[in-house]
Amino acid sequence: MNFYFSDEHELLRRTIRKIAEEKVRPRAAAIDEQAEYPWDIFKIFKEAGLFSTCIPEEYGGSGLGTTGLCIAIEEVAKYCCSSGLMLLLTYLPTQPIRVAGSEAQRKKYLGAVARGEMRCAFCLTEPGAGSDAANIRTSAVRKGDYYLINGTKCFISGASVADFVTVFAKTRPDAGSRGITAFIVEKGTPGFSIGTIEKKMGVRGMPLCEVVFDEVRVPAENMVGKENKGFQLAMHTLNSIRPAVGARGLGLAQGALEYAMNYAKERHAFGGPLTGLQGLRWMMADMATQIEAARLLIMQAAFLIDSGKFSKEYAGILSMSKVFPTDMAVKVAIDAAQILGGHGYIQDHPMERYIRDAKQLQIVEGTSQVQREIIARNILQYGLPRKNW
Ligand SMILES: Cc1cc2nc3c(=O)[nH]c(=O)nc-3n(C[C@H](O)[C@H](O)[C@H](O)COP(=O)(O)OP(=O)(O)OC[C@H]3O[C@@H](n4cnc5c(N)ncnc54)[C@H](O)[C@@H]3O)c2cc1C
Question: Which of 1, 44, 206, 277 shows a CA-CA span of 20 to 30 A to 131?
Fold first, then answer.
């Protein structure tokens, strides 16, 4: 057993921590207030090579895996959850290509994402199908050497700034989860457009978009993996992204607690700093303990994924690495705001932003309820984690 990170991962953490403290922290409040994609942060990340973290070396990435991605996201999300999501979006839409894409697709898209030359989005959710993803209605009909895609996706992170999207569509409309196929669709393809851009509670630096496919003609070579195998690909992708979503919660919770601790050291009440009050001390102790528990779940899951262990037997432990840190982030953000008293409710401090941002994490990439369903199903079928490791 080894609780240490490799030299490469430590170097990554140091590098990104400096960027996060010096460049991301001062911008976070404005990114939220302006509710616009932070192109300046994108440029900083691009120049520092941070989009390459999870892309394999043979395709131009730095090959630091899910562990590297989680480290990077954690450091950035301490200050800005939108910028953390920017890093996560190098993984979510590209994982189907990494796992099942053709060599030509991997060469074209993975390297471009790693270099920050292309941004991408993951189009699964529809107005009538979120958690119940097998029920999507967007269709892809084969016409010789191309497919014609029709339908509307909703709640798609970063679609309006993406150069391509990975979209899931029905190729056999009456076959449920066995009739879904994944495709790559590039920006500028006729019939592909961005609809409503939602006004939302938090993570306001990442646009949330409706994506419309109106008779979009997609070459057959843009199909990712095999026809009708797209649902497994989507579920596999969502399974393997769990710790990275958890890392957004981990970073956010640390940022909130650190801010609250610093405040409590300075603020005086009843003749001493707030840090002397047992009621608050125990809250801080509980928060710190939950943060460390979340970190262990996340890093264990990242280790499993990087070791190639993310088949269905591991689905439960991977879901734990998403549900615990994200539920924890909401609780810690609320408790950290409480430590600031009335000041925690005022926008001069970041606590209300932390609370709004944390809430998103319980919904995306499988809600907290769906994660618990996966965990329950998994432990009942395969036994408690580690039984067969
Ligand atoms: C900010 C944001 C960013 C997003 N980004 C993306 C993206 O980039 N790409 C993408 O494809 N989607 C994205 N989504 C969509 C997101 O994945 C869905 O909103 C989520 O999966 C839930 O689906 P739904 O909204 O349709 O809710 P529903 O599925 O209708 O769920 C409603 C309620 O029922 C509960 N529920 C549903 N099924 C079960 C069950 N089996 N057991 C117990 N409870 C259940 C849910 O937990 C929830 O509380 C994003 C959403 C948000 C808010």
Answer: 206
